[in-house]
Amino acid sequence: MESNKKSSKASSALSLKKEIGLMEAITMVVGVVIGSGIFFKASSVFKNAGTPTLGILAWIVGGIITIASALTIAEIAAAIPKTGGIFVYLKELYSEKWAFLFGWVQAVIYVPGVAAALSIVFVTQATYFIALTAVQQKVLAIFMIFFITFINMLSTKLGSKVQFISTIAKLIPIFVIIIFGLIKGEANSMAASSVASTSTGLAGFGAAILGTLWAYDGWVGVGNMAGELKNPKKDIPRSIIIGLTVIIAVYILINLAIVNIMPVADVIASEKAASDAAVILFGNSGAALIAAGIMISIFGALNGYLMTGVRVPFAMAQDNLFPFAKFFGKISDKFGTPINALLFEAILASLYVLSGSFETLTNLAVFAVWIFFVMTVYGIFILRSKHKNIERPYKVPLYPIVPIIGIAGGIYILVSTLITSTSYALFGLAITALGLPVYLFLKRKK
User: Is the whole-model pTM more than 0.70?
Assistant: First the structure.
């Protein structure tokens, strides 16, 4: 496959260190995906599903759709093991313009917006242990963003080690709830025939699946780090598949445990079902356990989002497809990390924390991001038809059935969002379109 020769030569002298092994890559996948959703999503999924059995089935179906997309993109990632992930795949399989529009949304809105949202949820949980005013919460949120940024500026290896430790730590309270909930739970809600639901039939079950799909989001970020993996062609597919298998099992088991601890009607009524389940099992100390678990979980997710997300504007700058490309494409001589791109994302995230508009911005960007995600999954057909001779160390099994399942799931998310959140979807498209004049300006300058 052809690449921009000038950018390749320019970047050859400056390359990120290959410091990330398979275990760090797996914990990157698990750590980014398992954030706060695992602790708060149970009520909406069971409410929409209609029965406890359908609620668990929704998590399974959501996992199948996710793993189908993962198995597909893993082949593309192994064939194109370059820093930048989806940005690079879109550039190689579609065009530079599509790649830029994706990178624009990711770099300017989605990654810093998600980082801002996670930092706010982190400090909200911290108020369980210490009283904080609204101003103090924002200061602590910004401190956390820059603290994690500083870690990743010092060393990618250090950032990946932090990811490994935080992922293991966050799984401890989750496994405690799973083990004790399945053994000691007395509610046995799976025997319930139905629950109060605002939706019925296929619509309700569809809404439940949609909720699980958002909870599974984030795994593709490991592809952004391809240039820093020791063996990207093998480790990207392995980390995605192993990581998602762990995540799907954890999601299904913790939801089974929760409905075994609490009557499903109580699960639906609760905004923090996992915390309430822990209180039933362990008393007030259980609430402290989960509050700490949520903070560790979010810390790991925040580290993962910043670590992987910053590679998109960096890759764009290396290809001269980002404003002030020389500045944002710089690699630190001392640390071997993309320090300017890291600082850029941290400053944007901090501004979103101060403005309070980050949640709206990420909602606007989500629809656009999923358009590019579906395009990437479809890209497997382009890869196999137009680039037959490219080395593929991994191939998606049961082709073309698996990619079609992934595409169908992505289209479902887009259609559902368009119907239920039309204004967000349209504004998201508008924000994406704002990238076009920036792209044309950069091309003219080039």
Answer: yes
